[in-house]
TrEMBL record:
InterPro entries: KR_dom (IPR057326), NAD(P)-bd_dom_sf (IPR036291), SDR_fam (IPR002347). GO terms for molecular function: oxidoreductase activity, acting on the CH-OH group of donors, NAD or NADP as acceptor. Residues 3-180 form the Ketoreductase domain. PANTHER family: 3-OXOACYL-[ACYL-CARRIER-PROTEIN] REDUCTASE, CHLOROPLASTIC (PTHR42760:SF40), SHORT-CHAIN DEHYDROGENASES/REDUCTASES FAMILY MEMBER (PTHR42760). Gene3D superfamilies: NAD(P)-binding Rossmann-like Domain (3.40.50.720). One of its GO terms (biological process) is fatty acid elongation. This is 3-oxoacyl-ACP reductase.
């Protein structure tokens, strides 16, 4: 039976790759995001994928989204987020620091919590909630790393809450993944080489590495895996 899958931040990068993967395997997919252009492009290009514009940090927007969703959701992938303060440029005034810190918490932690809460009564028994975390949760990256660490911690409680309904909740935590918008074309060659050198595999991650991990956690083979963080980072370790 075809499943219904909601993927937030599904217009580009990891989210789009996930939509393509699940749709190719016969699932019905709904992708969301804040930018209508990439969403429409992805939905037009992928058979079996519908799109809806939504800011997942906005409760009112989530109420509107839920009204458009199917009554049953088998898989929720909380992928929306990303580093929000690339342009902070080391601002030292307290108001700017608070603004930038809250922006990362909202984008990467609150968005997942609000979305999961909004669709809670539509999550089907035997389903899965999967969040996209980050290696930054373990290796540090300011407010972004703090938000992703908070996501992993919050997920433990979510797994306990959803477990009696036979719904799993896990985090897939990527390292450096090539071919995404995460670094906004600002990753210098030296930094890229540094990230690759930190891996045991000697290569950057690929989108297929993440889609494979998410697909596994959404599959019948992973029904007794919950409350976990699956690191997909090539064995990366901190380097100086």
């Amino acid at each position: 039976m075809a499943r219904t899958i909601l993927i937030t931040g599904g217009g580009t990068g990891i989210g789009r790759a996930l939509a393509e993967h699940f749709a190719a395997h016969g699932d019905r997919v709904v992708i969301t995001g804040r930018r209508p252009g990439p969403l429409k492009e992805a939905a037009d290009a992928l058979t079996g994928v519908a799109a809806a514009v939504c800011d997942h940090t906005d409760p009112a927007a989530l109420h509107r989204l839920v009204a458009e969703l199917p009554e049953r959701l088998d898989v929720l992938v909380n992928n929306a987020g990303g580093q929000t303060d690339f342009d902070a440029d080391g601002a030292t005034d307290l108001a700017s620091y608070a603004r930038d810190f809250r922006a990362n918490l909202d984008a990467n932690l609150l968005s997942a919590a609000l979305t999961t809460r909004a669709v809670d009564d539509r999550l089907a028994a035997g389903g899965a909630v999967i969040h996209i975390g980050s290696i930054a949760a373990d290796q540090g990256s300011g407010s972004y790393g703090a938000a992703k660490a908070g996501l992993a911690s919050w997920n433990i409680d979510l797994a306990r809450t959803l477990g009696p309904r036979a719904i799993t909740a896990n985090v897939v935590s990527p390292g450096y993944i090539a071919g995404t918008e995460f670094f906004r074309d600002q990753l210098a060659d030296a930094r890229r080489e540094h990230l690759i050198a930190a891996t045991a595999t000697g290569r950057p991650g690929a989108l297929d590495d993440i889609t494979g991990a998410v697909a596994f956690l959404a599959s019948p083979a992973a029904r007794h895996i919950t409350g976990q963080v699956l690191n997909v980072n090539g064995g990366a370790y901190p380097t100086r």
